[in-house]
CehA/McbA family metallohydrolase (Alicyclobacillus fodiniaquatilis), 425 residues
Amino acid sequence: MAAEVSHYAVEIHKSDEGHFVEVPFEVPENIGEIRIQITVQPHAKKPCIIDVGLTDPAQVRGWSGSTKYDLRIALDSATPGYLAGDIPPGRWAVILGVYTISEAGAHVEADITLVPHQDAWVKGDLHLHTVHSDGAYTFAELDEIAKARKFDYVGLTDHNTVSQNFSYPQESPVTYIPAMELTTYHGHANLFGVPIPCDDFRVQDVSDVERLLKEAKSRGAFIAINHPFDDTGPSCQWQWGYDVPFDWLEVWNGPWRACNAASLALWQDMLAAGKRIVAVGGSDTHREHPYVRHGVPTTWVKSPSRTVDAILHAINQGHAFISFSPEGPTLELTCGDHMMGDLVPNRQQSEIALTVAHVQPGDIIKLISEQGVAETYTVQPGEQAWQKQWSANGKRFWRVEIWRHFAEVNDMLLVGMSNPIYFAK
């Protein structure tokens, strides 16, 4: 559905001075943005001051006086003075506050554009560190890096502290996701979505871990078990088992290496056993490093908006894929109206569609089910995008991996992977 533009006109009289005049308009379902352009035309060259605001069906959404006549409200951003957020259907109104007007009155016009909501891909780094723990980056430095790499979001996963969740730059266009990396002597986990996911990070045994993770979930956190086979030290490897509460598995941590391959194999085993665990990635960047860099890898999310809640809930639905850099590769894995992370009702007659972009000649694309790699394709010279359709063939899930040869290490490394699209029995 295309954006709909409506034109409204109203005459303001001297008798309206000191009062509020409403210009009502109807907002249908599934609108993601409202744009309003106000024009005031006095009928005489005398003082005319008309203030402007906006109300939705339940409350006043903002007020800008006579300083702003070009207004915008969306799910995740708005003109200063106005509240971003949900756009409920029903009666809205432009508020005209008639402060000063001559006997001649004025003519006011409002052009209102209703933009339908569409989910969009956002990208960012879910795992990194700042000076609030053992990282070297200040928030000013991190914000510049995030904007330079065109991140839409960043996860604030400092170790066992939450001060970062109250210190990030509030006016940045980057969405900062409150988080904490629960850092124990037997493994790490990221707790996303709430500024204070737990009151005390100290754990001694698995019952402590289970209690803490339940506490975090009760507060609304999403939990990712991090780098289960981390090769930087035994205390970084996850040794608490997988019967504790968690939502996601960080299968890709920093540059691709053997410990990530082990995490990927673990995840595949979980999927084959019927578990629907979401795969995520993050750079785990602490400081300047030739290979560990922000956005290596990048997690892409098909999200209703760039708010924290929208991004995290979309990840939790599995509407995400991982690429080795912010530039891609990118991919779309769908089955009719369903996408990666979704459960398709019929797995016998379902047609799957895959589109991969930003690939290079020689890249290897693998189609994978619970039975392992089913088909392999090589990107040919001149191909920057690649498409494939195939039948679900009774499989419980399908997912995609993209591999590339890197001369620096003379090896094939993972450069892209999807979450699965699932099929009911």
Summary: The longest strand covers residues 31-42. The chain has four helices and 27 strands. The chain has three domains: 4-116, 119-328, 329-425.
